[in-house]
Specification:
The chain is of the alpha/beta class. The protein is built from 21 helices and 15 strands. It folds into 3 domains: 4-218, Rossmann fold; 231-340, Orthogonal Bundle (Tyrosyl-Transfer RNA Synthetase); 346-424, RNA-binding S4 domain (Structural Genomics Hypothetical 15.5 Kd Protein In mrcA-pckA Intergenic Region, Chain A). 45% of the residues lie in helices and 14% in strands. Strand 14 and strand 15 form a beta hairpin. It is elongated. The termini are far apart.
């Protein structure tokens, strides 16, 4: 077996670790788990850190369990929260769990090997436990003083915390105990904000059955400029292609700062140490080439969306930032096209107007307002600064059905950076 702790350490993926964890992992194949909160129907890139912990666990010869919190999702984790959050319905939780499970299955190996990955749902064991059974069999093993000492509780004492949220760490601790007893799981991993919840589990196992379990957490990712990791102008960067397109996903990583890139390439890729150190050296010698950013964007986009979507994202980047033609635009699917030109103003025209032939002056001003007047449109055309679908045009141009991209769009452009989209309905 490969030394998991050593692998995680050089990647900067260890924040806290219980004594004896490394020895346990080197002694035998060890089952470990990470829990995922079903607050949304997609994971986001902030979830990639615990996902990568499971990936490395399996690659080092151990057995990974991904726990989706059908039961804990009904309670709500107070860790890192300043206020109580809205509780989800059972239907919403189940929908979110189903979606997240499909995403998790992309990263782990589900095969016939001893260390094959498994996905478990804690609702499967909690649904048959009564409240009285739980407070008798679980609650008596962890004192209120112990629970009050946790950061997730102490940080909320002034603003208040419901009993529902207060009980969360005990419920998560019971998860660890159940997996320990029924699946021989001896390790729980997660982000550093989960340390209190995880160690409650190890303590519960020790007190209830005299067992020994272990904990390992990774640091929370911070951006060098102080802004929140995993957020773009549009909000979370999701793993679901319908929420964050592969092009937008690719661009997030490509636009990393040099300082962040040196962290991200270790945390979010599976490249080995020698390859990463060689890339870092090349990058330092010619930072303007953005070699690290290009490699991170490639590795993570391929990991999440596949090689085909990565190739589309690169082609899309060329359309916006490089030289491209109408033929290049027509190769791009509608979702990617709209991602490239997200936020670009649009006007809607009818199919009948296009069938009759729409003169370029009307397209630029009269029908759209892209340019302020017919006079401005004529001047721009005379200056040869107007393009239709990335190809320069003159005043004789008439838009027709042949100019449509994906059967619905025409891209107008003045100069290098001013775009406008005609949508045909």
């Amino acid at each position: 077996m490969k030394n998991l702790v050593e692998e995680l350490r050089w990647r900067g993926l260890i924040h806290d670790m219980m004594p004896g964890t490394e020895e346990q992992l080197m002694k035998e194949m060890t089952a470990g788990y990470v829990g995922f909160d079903p607050t949304a129907d997609s994971l986001h890139i902030g979830n990639l850190v615990p996902v990568m912990l499971l990936v490395h666990l399996q690659r080092c010869g151990h057995k990974p369990f991904a726990l989706v919190g059908g039961a804990t999702g009904m309670v709500g984790d107070p860790s890192g929260k300043t206020a109580e959050r809205q509780l989800l319905s059972l239907e919403d939780i189940q929908h979110n769990l189903d979606c997240q499970k499909k995403q998790l299955e992309k990263f782990l190996e589900f095969n016939d090997q001893p260390n094959s990955a498994e996905v478990v749902n804690n609702h499967d064991w909690f649904k048959n436990i009564s409240f009285l059974d739980f407070i008798r069999d679980a609650g008596k093993h962890i004192s209120v003083n112990y629970m009050m000492a946790k950061d997730s509780v102490k940080s909320r004492l002034e603003t208040g915390m419901s009993f529902t949220e207060f009980s969360y760490q005990l419920i998560q601790g019971y998860d660890f105990y159940w997996l320990y007893e029924n699946k021989a799981v001896k390790l729980q991993m997660g982000g550093s904000d989960q340390w209190g919840n995880i160690t409650t589990g190890t303590e519960f196992i020790r007190r209830k059955v005299g067992g020994e379990a272990f904990a390992l957490t990774a640091p929370l990712i911070r951006k060098a400029d102080g802004s929140k990791f995993g957020k773009s102008e549009g909000g979370n960067v999701w793993l679901d292609a319908d929420k964050t397109s592969p092009y937008q996903f690719y661009q997030y990583w490509f636009n990393s700062s040099d300082e962040d890139a040196k962290n991200y390439i270790r945390v979010f890729t599976l490249l080995d140490r020698a390859t990463i150190e060689a890339l870092e050296k090349e990058h330092d010698e010619a930072p303007q080439l953005r070699l690290l950013q290009k490699k991170i964007a490639e590795e993570v986009t391929c990991l999440v969306h596949g090689r085909e979507e990565f190739d589309k994202a690169v082609a899309a980047s060329g359309i916006l930032f490089g030289k491209s033609t109408a033929e290049d635009l027509r190769k791009v699917d509608e979702r990617t096209f709209l991602s490239i030109f997200d936020g670009v103003p649009q006007a809607v025209i009818s199919k009948a107007e296009l069938q009759e032939g729409l003169g370029i002056i009307d397209a630029l001003s009269g029908k759209t307002g892209f340019l302020k007047s017919n006079g401005e449109a004529r001047r721009a055309l005379q200056e040869n600064s107007v393009s239709v679908n990335k190809e320069s045009v003159d005043m004789e141009k008439t838009l027709s059905q042949e100019d449509l991209i994906n059967g619905s769009y025409v891209l107008l452009q003045k100069g290098k950076k001013n775009y406008y989209i005609l949508k045909v309905e």
